[in-house]
Amino acid sequence: MDDLPSVGIRLLDDRLPGWGFPCWGSAGAAGLDLHACLDAPLTFGPGSPAVLIPAGFAVLIRDIRWCGFVFPRSGRGHRDGLVLGNGTGVIDADYEGPLMISAWNRGADPVRIEPGERIAQLVFTRIARPDLTILDADDTPSSARGAGGFGSSGR
Q1: What is the model's pTM?
Q2: Band of the pLDDT at 149, cuts 50, 70, 90?
Q3: What angle do CA 26, 30, 33 make, to 5 degrees?
């Protein structure tokens, strides 16, 4: 596709190529697998503070029409409670520092992460930055939707 940006990857951990990075898990996978660049296994208990785990590289998006989202891997989140401490990580086009994964254990048992284990995924997506218009507080909404406040649709 001609409209896709060229994204640079600066390797910060020499072990990544041996672990198969960079690769998508399948031909149809949306996310680029992110590995835990740890020197030793890490175990953390349920509800303990989130832990920052290096992904071992920096991503250079550089096209302001694009960004990256870091998501947990579905299986580990469902089975073991391994999710992201910040819900979803946002990688802005102008951020070129080391990629870190905020890992948190929301499960009932301790979670163990091995060096090189795939623990998250990076999804690239196009973004929109619309022109914003500041309105007066007394401007009437053009639809009734929202007039009843948060949760007013009853769903």
Answers
A1: 0.86
A2: confident
A3: 65
pLDDT in tens, 22-69: 999 899 999 999 999 999 999 999 989 999 999 999 999 999 999 999
Count the neighbouring beta carbons within 10 Å of the beta carbon of residue 144: 8
| Structural tokens at position 75 | 């299986």
Question: What is the spatial order of strands in the sheet that 98-105 belongs to?
Answer: 8-11, 51-60, 98-105, 82-84
Contact 55, 102 (CB under 8 A): no
Instruction: Look at strands 8-11 and 66-72 and give their pairing.
Output: unpaired
Residue pair 75/130 in contact (Cβ under 8 Å)? The answer is: no
Q: Of 8, 70, 88, nearest to 33 (Cα)?
A: 70
In whole angstroms, what is the distance from residue 43 CA to residue 87 CA?
Answer: 20
Question: Which amino acid would we find at residue 148?
Answer: G
